[in-house]
Design brief:
Layout (H helix, E strand, L loop, with lengths): L7 E4 L3 H11 L5 E4 L2 H10 L4 E5 L7 H6 L9 E6 L4 H11 L3 E4 L4 H38 L5 H20 L3 H31 L8 E4 H8 L10 E4 L1 H16 L4 E9 L2 E9 L31 H12 L3 E7 L2 E8 L4
Length: about 350
């Protein structure tokens, strides 16, 4: 299973060190930098980071103290401590207090640096893979337990029958009140049929029964048309499945617009990676217990594949597509805030 590469955060009070490390690691993973622990913590509040590289000697707070604070995060990044010292007490303190996985000596060797960071990223994937798999299984299990039994002959056939009869009745009935009742019934059947078709489509993507053929696309143009609040001025080309990505963008945009609150977003490029961040501030339409609600009020739409605008099914669709296309996708809910991160690799 190929997991998308998580970003790296580098913390050092020397601008030259930050610049040099960013330059050396930009093709390994997306890179964030911070000049002090306070700035780093703000970055960690807004981004899901896989590896944190921190200098030991910094004004105000040393690297061990800073890295030990990361245990409060809802996930576990891999911690690397940079130091020009060889004091064994520092190493012992770092391991015992902060759970340091790797040490990086200053000045560093470029080849050694890349090996250490690649191992750290691998450790992060291994450490969090079980959590990610459990989350994915819960999503799939929720769908399966709730609707699998309904997606069989016992439901699909009766719906087709009802749809056929209501269409015939609608043509024959002249009484306006009865005609409205029949139309309402037909609309309900259409929405339910769309729900079934949508869910089966997700299942087919999950099981590899949908073609994932690739083509070159203008990702910048697609982002501008889907998320008008994002400012992206440079051309960005990606080779992937245009149809599925466009559909996922549509669903995410629709889901965001129904959350209430202020929408914002930005994009950052680091080497061959492009990270898109979407935010809803002051969200008024929160889901129950912070979970993406699957069974909420369904909205009618002329396209049977585009219904259920405020249901978590839209987000499950996007998550399934991005997972199949090896594109990073993270959703974080904090109080009345919602953050979505999409990480594209191999940007041309």
């Amino acid at each position: 299973m190929n997991t998308p590469v998580a970003p790296i955060l580098i913390v050092d009070d020397e601008a030259s060190v930050l610049s040099a490390l960013r330059r050396e690691l930009k093709d390994t993973a997306p890179v964030f930098t911070a000049s002090d622990p306070q700035e780093a913590l703000k970055t960690l509040e807004k981004n899901t980071v896989g590896v944190v590289i921190s200098d030991y000697k910094m004004p105000g707070k040393d690297g061990v103290s800073f890295l030990s604070e990361l245990s409060k995060l809802p996930y576990e990044p891999i911690k690397i401590l940079m130091t020009a010292f060889s004091d064994p007490d520092i190493a012992i303190d770092a391991i015992n207090k902060a759970g340091i996985f790797f040490f990086l000596k200053k000045p560093w060797n470029s080849a050694e640096l890349k090996v250490i960071v690649e191992r750290a990223l691998e450790a992060y994937r291994n450490k969090n893979e079980l959590k990610f798999c459990r989350q994915r299984l819960r999503e799939i299990e929720n769908i399966k337990n709730s609707i699998t039994s309904l997606l069989t002959h016992e439901l699909k056939t009766p719906l087709t029958t009802i749809s056929g009869y209501t269409e015939l009745l609608g043509r024959e009935v002249t009484d306006l009140e009865l005609k409205n009742v029949i139309n309402s019934l037909q609309n309900s059947v259409t929405r339910l049929e769309g729900f079934i078709d949508d869910t089966l489509y997700i299942a087919n993507i999950e099981t590899g029964q949908v073609s994932l053929s690739s083509e070159k696309m203008d990702l910048a143009a697609l982002l501008k048309s889907s998320f008008k609040f994002i400012d992206i001025n440079e051309p960005v080309t990606l080779e992937s499945n245009l149809k599925l990505i466009a559909e996922s963008f549509y669903r995410i945009s629709r889901y965001l617009s129904l959350q209430g609150g202020k929408l914002s977003g930005d994009c950052t490029r680091s080497g061959s990676y492009l990270t898109i961040k979407l935010f809803v501030h002051g969200r008024s339409n929160k889901t129950h217990n912070g979970q993406l609600a699957l069974f909420q009020r369904l909205e009618t739409n002329s396209d049977v594949m585009h219904y259920g605008g405020d249901s978590g099914l839209d987000m499950i669709f996007a998550s399934t597509v991005f997972s199949a296309l090896k594109i990073g996708f993270n959703v974080t809910e904090m109080n009345d805030e919602l953050r979505i991160e999409i990480i594209f690799n191999k940007i041309i």
